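Why should sequence recovery work at all? Because a backbone constrains its sequence more than one might expect. Tight turns favour small or flexible residues, buried strands favour hydrophobic ones, and helices have their own preferences. The token representation captures these environments compactly. In the example below, the structure is given first.
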């Protein structure tokens, strides 16, 4: 791990001191979008797990099926399972499309 990332994680741990009991004793459920923010959060929890042996969090990813990105969704699932020892939950959900105009009643 890069020293800069480790320094950021250590500062975050200090700032999260009021929540230490919750973080260190209860497993978290992390919503993962595949973006930078949620990826950083996964790495932070992996850091906490390796350093402090916190309970392993679960990772939830919602495939909302709005876009035709089946291959990308498979890649996300593979990436998570190959790189993190966390329990992975992937949910596929079809949302009804919204009309472009809203009719007044």
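From this structural description, the recovered sequence reads:
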């Amino acid at each position: 791990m890069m020293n800069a990332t480790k320094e950021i994680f250590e500062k975050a741990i200090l700032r999260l001191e009021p929540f230490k009991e919750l973080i260190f004793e209860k497993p978290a459920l992390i919503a993962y979008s595949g973006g930078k923010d949620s990826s950083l959060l996964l790495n932070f929890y992996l850091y906490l797990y390796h350093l402090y042996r916190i309970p392993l969090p679960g990772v939830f990813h919602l495939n909302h099926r709005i876009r035709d990105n089946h291959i990308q969704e498979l890649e996300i699932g593979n990436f998570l399972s190959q790189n993190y020892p966390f329990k992975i939950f992937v949910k596929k959900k079809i949302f009804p499309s919204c009309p472009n105009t809203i009719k007044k009643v």
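A few observations help interpret the result. The two ends are 58 Å apart (CA to CA).
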